[in-house]
Write a structure and sequence with these properties.
The complex is a heterodimer of chains A (about 375) and B (about 120). By secondary structure, chain A is α+β, with helices and mostly antiparallel strands. Chain A contains 8 helices and 19 strands. Among the domains of chain A are: about 130 residues, Probable tRNA modification gtpase trme, domain 1 (Gyrase A, domain 2, 2-Layer Sandwich), CATH 3.30.1360.120; about 90 residues, Aminomethyltransferase beta-barrel domains (Elongation Factor Tu (Ef-tu), domain 3), CATH 2.40.30. Chain A is globular, with a radius of gyration of 21 Å. The N and C termini of chain A lie far apart (about 40 Å). Chain B has a single domain, classed as OB fold (Dihydrolipoamide Acetyltransferase, E2P). Chain B is built from 4 helices and 9 strands; from the N terminus they run βββαβββββααβα. In chain B, the strands form 2 sheets. A 6-stranded antiparallel sheet of chain B has the order 1-2-3-9-8-5. The longest helix of chain B has 8 residues. Chain B is globular. Classes of the chains: A alpha+beta (about 375), B alpha+beta (about 120). At the A-B interface, helix 2 of A face strand 4 of B.
Chain lengths: ~375, ~120
């Protein structure tokens, strides 16, 4: 696999029997010998360890030294209340473009005197260039290249991590903190992409293998690949950038309006002032014409990405398309996300065309699998 | 047993052949979550797409290995598709067919040839 990058844990993935595939420019494990289904269920019942070192880690510091200045600067690129984000807290955000589409989704943490951003692997170079171009005059920006990023997720994640770093039990959902392990400085957040309780841990590269091995040595911790990562996040109702949201979908269409706090909405303290504000504020006020919804196919046949959705069993043009779909091992049923006309409500039946047959699916609330966060 | 290049196995049982997918194929597919079977009584031609297997990863087709008539399908697979991973060459047979020309079996691979193909 020429030209693909490898994370510092590559050799360990091979040793663990990981099946490597190209993903966002990296060779990453799609599964281990346990298999996608068992990896998924293991994460929901014990603890799963994911290598997410391909994601972008960015430090952002205002040249003035004030974290408020960094927050206000970042607010020019995201429709999110960053100024209101307290020290030691993290929040979901979106980079929007002038048309109101989504350039990427990300996490933003306030670390006292600066911000820490985690962005998608496939977008990290363009995100960094975007930040530099718009905020480079007033902020110092640094892409971290010497740290791995791990996610430890599941009901046993706290107990497992606490054996190595006892004081993580104090953290609540979306808290961030810096903790020591050996002589390594760990950047820890209590968050993840599975709907489970868990942590995301940035660890210096030279400690990454030993730290990962220390976690994997615990009976409840198993390595989990990208396959289960996708089914876990889909059950949790979370968007995958480039599939469920992208430059052609606004945050309102994408049904992530919960990420746009009052301060940035009409009548808020810092109304608008982000790319695409005109469209996004208008859609917030008037409603979008289409919206991302959850679908529960009635049979067992999964409806995958790209499946066209129709209003009836025969005739008519497609009313939407599935953007993510598969089988949910925990809900033991197929599940999907689709963009559908906003006037369709939960409980309505639509039809996904699978292999030439229109199969019924019901518009359903998300998450499909209840969240287990420690708030 | 006889084998096709599409990783199906065929076992002769009296007048009919029983058809399933090989252990190698089931490993490659990953966890199977859905199986769609043809209807008994259907006449099929070699290479017709007659079954669908969906795993956690993707959808795949099973083609008719030879010309003939489907005489029985394994309905248990619809309720328990995971059998395809647990017992691909036993309980998880897909269908039984009556071949139009039994001698066509001779054109398929034997076990040694199949094992060589999958390396």
């Amino acid at each position: 696999m020429a030209d693909l990058k490898r994370t510092v844990l590559y050799d360990l993935h091979i040793e663990l029997g990981g099946k490597m595939v190209p993903f966002a420019g990296y060779e990453m494990p799609v599964q281990y010998p346990m298999g996608v289904m068992k990896e998924h269920l293991h994460t929901r019942t014990a603890a799963g360890l994911f290598d997410v070192s391909h994601m972008g880690q960015i430090l952002m510091t205002a040249k003035s030294g004030s974290v408020e200045d960094a927050a206000l600067a970042l607010e020019r690129l995201v429709p999110v209340d960053i100024l209101g984000l307290k020290e030691g807290r993290q929040r979901y955000a979106l980079f929007t473009n002038d048309e109101g589409g989504i350039l990427d989704d990300l996490m933003v943490a306030n670390r006292g005197d600066h911000l820490f951003l985690v962005v998608n692997a496939a977008c990290k170079d363009q995100d960094f260039a975007h930040l530099k171009a718009h905020l480079g005059d007033e902020c110092d920006l640094g892409m971290i290249t010497d740290r791995a990023l791990l996610a430890l997720q599941g009901p046993a994640a706290e107990a497992a991590l606490a054996r190595l770093v006892p004081d993580v039990v104090d953290l609540k959902f979306m808290d961030v903190a810096i903790r020591q392990w050996d002589t390594a400085e760990l950047w820890i957040s209590r968050s993840g992409y599975t709907g489970e309780d868990g942590f995301e841990i940035s660890v210096p590269e030279k400690f990454a293998v030993s730290f990962t091995r220390a976690l994997l040595a615990m009976e409840e911790v198993a390595p989990i690949g990208l396959g289960a990562r996708d089914s876990l996040r889909l059950e949790a109702g979370m968007c995958l950038y480039g599939h469920d949201i992208d430059t052609t979908t606004s945050p309102v269409e994408g049904n992530v309006t919960w990420a746009i706090q009052k301060a940035r909405r009409a009548g808020g303290a810092r109304e608008g002032g982000f790319p695409g504000a005109a469209r996004i504020l208008k859609e917030l006020a008037e409603g979008p014409s289409r919206r991302r919804v959850g679908l529960r196919p009635e049979g067992r046949a999964p409806m995958r990405e790209g499946t066209e959705v129709f209003a009836g069993t025969e005739g008519g043009a497609a009313i939407g398309t599935i953007t993510s779909g598969g089988f949910g091992p925990s809900i033991e049923a197929p599940m999907a996300m689709a963009y559908l006309p906003a006037d369709l409500s939960e409980g309505a039946t639509v039809y996904g065309e699978v292999r030439g047959k229109r199969l019924p699916a019901v518009i359903a609330p998300m998450p499909f699998q209840p969240n287990q966060y420690k708030r | 047993m006889k084998y096709t290049e599409d990783h199906e196995w065929l076992r002769v049982e009296g007048d009919v052949v029983v058809v399933g997918i090989t252990a190698h194929a089931s490993e490659q597919l990953g966890d199977v979550v859905f199986v769609e079977l043809p209807e008994a009584g259907t006449n099929v031609s070699k290479d017709d797409e007659i079954c669908v297997i969906e795993s956690v990863k993707a959808a795949s087709d099973i083609r008719a290995p030879l010309d003939g008539e489907i005489v029985e399908v394994n309905d248990a697979l619809a309720d328990n598709p995971g059998m395809v991973n647990e017992d691909p060459t036993g309980k998880a047979w897909f269908f039984k067919m009556k071949l139009a020309d039994k001698s066509a079996l001779d054109g398929l691979m034997d076990e040694a040839a199949y094992n060589e193909m999958i390396g």
